[in-house]
């Protein structure tokens, strides 16, 4: 379940980038009720993209802004409450990590859903049902 965090240079201290990605991962697993699930934990992947300041925009102008994108299968974070919980936790994590270098209003989160049977892991296409089976099998 890829997470992409995009920020301009200087927003996050380099030593904090790994920490904030770990917090985003933990937030997803916690909100989904999957802390400790080996299948899910191994498949929360992603990147921290640090761009030149002149390449990050809000309102058409260069800005101190952060963008969090989460890609999920359709069965994940299926309720409004779970989406809100992830967005709040992710925003809090980035805001803390930026240590006052960004306003909360300049942190955007986007959750994107993949169509059923279009989720691939290790060369295997998973349906939503197959993902649920794999997650449940890893739970015990």
UniProtKB/TrEMBL annotation:
SUPFAM superfamilies: Tautomerase/MIF
Gene3D superfamilies: Macrophage Migration Inhibitory Factor
Protein name: Tautomerase enzyme
Protein species of origin: Trinickia symbiotica
């Amino acid at each position: 379940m890829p997470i992409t965090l995009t920020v301009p240079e200087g927003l996050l201290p380099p030593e904090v980038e790994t920490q904030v990605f770990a917090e985003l991962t933990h937030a997803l697993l916690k909100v989904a009720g999957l802390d400790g699930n080996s299948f899910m934990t191994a498949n929360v992947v992603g990147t921290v993209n640090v761009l030149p300041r002149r390449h990050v925009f809000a309102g058409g102008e260069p800005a101190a802004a952060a963008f969090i994108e989460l890609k999920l299968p359709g069965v994940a974070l299926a309720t409004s409450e779970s989406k809100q919980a992830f967005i709040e936790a992710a925003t809090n994590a980035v805001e803390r990590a930026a240590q006052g270098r960004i306003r909360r209003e300049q942190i955007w989160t986007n959750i994107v859903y993949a169509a059923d049977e279009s989720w691939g892991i290790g060369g295997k296409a998973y349906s939503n049902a197959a993902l649920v089976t794999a997650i449940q099998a890893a739970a015990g």
